[in-house]
């Protein structure tokens, strides 16, 4: 059954229950619940009027902000209901008492308006809830689409940088080329096969980051030092994939572009006692004119957007630039993996087959 059909059935069931409840109050008098033909016919005409207001006037005028035509039409409906009750129903059932004189517009409105207001009000509230649910669903779909787009930008960005480096090593027939290919293969395998979900195991993400660091460390050779430290990571937490890799990539890129030696890159991360993931990435650089023309790429902007979507009010990102150092400090409140997710990540994963 389609979502729209389910919604219509739910609304129909809700309206039936509501009308039965309101009718029971309408038919209650000092002698208790008492239904006669007059009350039944009176409530029936109220029901017809309310349905006309709820399912025609509301969507036709009120929801389109045509308020004046809406209220004029409602007044005409109420006037018609009063007219039928006074000139037809009461003349038939109470010709010698209530049918002899008109009790006045105020008294008549007190009989009609409460019923119509209650029934129409619940219809308005129902429509508001359905609209809110649709907006939330649409917002969720937009966020998911944006996340997929942002994540899809990372792989080409990563490949563009590393294939250029691999090409340079291959041209030189460097003995490090096979090692670079293996590390690159490990990183790409993770990106292509294990990053399809919105969240992954933090342990896996850090392991992939380690492969990435080794891949870039090979390019530095004897020109500097890379310090990599991961503490208290464990396997209990999950994180959005491919966030940390952007900061590390920028550190290597800008350090190597601005200086030929004495490169220093420090990468530290840990889960604090409060369950906060604390990540720091620091690299040195030299102020030279050609670094101004170094392309910044899509990395940092991409990460900021993903953090804002996935971790609103749950992260703190500080980018600090001094004369010779650039530091990234990310504090991230992570959620723990569910039991079924823990079981999934504890199982050994086979390497995908290549054809």
Describe the structure.
This protein is an alpha+beta fold and 355 residues long. The protein has two domains: 3-135; 175-346, Histidine kinase-like ATPase, C-terminal domain (Heat Shock Protein 90), CATH 3.30.565. Helix content is 60%, strand content 15%. It contains nine helices and ten strands. The chain has helices spanning 3-26, 37-60, 67-93, 105-171, 177-193, 202-220, 244-258, 299-310, 339-346; strands at residues 28-29, 32-33, 200-201, 224-231, 237-239, 263-271, 276-284, 315-321, 325-333, 335-336. A hairpin with a 4-residue loop joins strand 6 (263-271) and strand 7 (276-284). The longest helix has 67 residues, at 105-171. The two termini are 40 Å apart.
What structural class do the secondary elements suggest?
A: alpha+beta
The global form is rod-shaped
CATH fold-level name of the largest domain: Heat Shock Protein 90
Binned strand content: 5-15%
Number of discrete domains: 2
E-strand count: 10
């Amino acid at each position: 059954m389609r979502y729209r059909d389910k919604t219509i059935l739910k609304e129909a069931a809700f309206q039936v229950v509501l009308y039965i409840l309101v009718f029971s109050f309408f038919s209650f008098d000092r002698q208790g619940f008492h239904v006669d033909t007059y009350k039944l016919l009176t409530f029936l005409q109220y029901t017809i009027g309310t349905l006309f207001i709820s399912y025609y006037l509301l969507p036709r005028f009120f929801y389109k902000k045509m308020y004046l035509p809406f209220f004029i039409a409602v007044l005409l409906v109420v006037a018609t209901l009063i007219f039928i009750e006074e000139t037809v129903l009461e003349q038939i059932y109470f010709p010698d008492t209530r049918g002899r004189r008109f009790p006045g517009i105020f008294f008549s409105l007190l009989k009609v308006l409460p019923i119509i207001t209650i029934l129409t009000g619940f219809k308005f509230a129902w429509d508001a809830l359905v609209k809110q649910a649709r907006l939330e669903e649409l917002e969720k779909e937009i966020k998911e689409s944006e996340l997929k787009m942002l994540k899809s930008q990372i792989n080409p960005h990563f490949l563009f940088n590393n294939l250029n480096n691999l090409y340079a090593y291959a041209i030189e027939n460097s003995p490090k080329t096979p090692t670079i290919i293996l590390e690159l293969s490990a990183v790409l395998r993770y990106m292509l096969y294990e990053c399809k979900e919105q969240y992954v195991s933090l342990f896996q993400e850090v392991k992939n980051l380690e492969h990435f660091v080794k891949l870039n460390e090979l390019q530095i050779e004897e020109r500097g030092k890379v310090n990599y430290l991961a503490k208290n990571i464990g396997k209990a937490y999950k994180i959005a994939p491919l966030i940390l890799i952007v900061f590390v990539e920028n550190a290597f890129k800008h350090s190597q572009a601005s200086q030929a030696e004495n490169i220093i890159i420090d990468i530290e991360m840990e889960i604090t006692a409060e369950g906060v993931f604390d990540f720091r990435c620091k690299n040195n650089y030299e102020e030279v004119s050609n670094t101004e023309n170094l392309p910044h790429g899509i990395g940092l902007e991409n990460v900021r957007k993903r953090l804002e979507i996935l971790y609103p009010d749950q992260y703190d990102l500080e980018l600090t630039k001094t004369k010779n150092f650039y530091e990234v400090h990310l504090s991230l409140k992570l959620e723990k993996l569910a039991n079924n997710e823990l079981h999934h990540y504890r199982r050994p994963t086979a390497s995908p087959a290549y054809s």
